[in-house]
């Protein structure tokens, strides 16, 4: 018996809502407590903003005694950008391109299906090495606990149409 196509599509759409909500969670954690602002895609490590989104800035900024090229909504480093720009055929550092890189990273970490299935805690555990602001990541972002992360995911998920 063939699965009901409407039910299959409904499950797929629900998974997409989970992915969109999870991307918001990453932005929330990266810029805690000021994530998910319109400027997230223009942010740089240390708090400055990009002048344009034509391409990743490629240079490092220094803050808190550390240097980093991390930029954009997902704090994408120069090395990561060069790798995924080529893999994905990206032509700019736009919000869409940044989202596509984040999703590719999530897929590579084998967390995409977990997110689509709503297994958010399991996904976080697979991704907290890449996004160190997530719970139990190396950044130990103050206030970003697993409990708050799951609560934030549920809030973002509820916002999805």
| Tertiary shape | globular
Which secondary-structure class do the elements indicate?
A: mainly alpha
Q: What series of H and E elements makes up the topology? A: HEEHHHHH
- CATH hierarchy class name: Mainly Alpha
**Biggest beta sheet attributes:** 2 strands, antiparallel
Strand residue content = under 5%
Count of helix runs: 6
Oligomer: single chain
Mean pLDDT: 88
Our Rg estimate from Cα atoms comes to 16 Å
Strand order within the widest beta sheet = 1-2
The total tally of domains equals 1
Distance between the termini: 31 Å
Contiguous uncertain segments of 5+ residues = none
Helix-residue proportion: 40-55%
Q: How many beta strands in the DSSP annotation?
A: 2
State the CATH architecture: Orthogonal Bundle
Return the CATH topology: Lysozyme
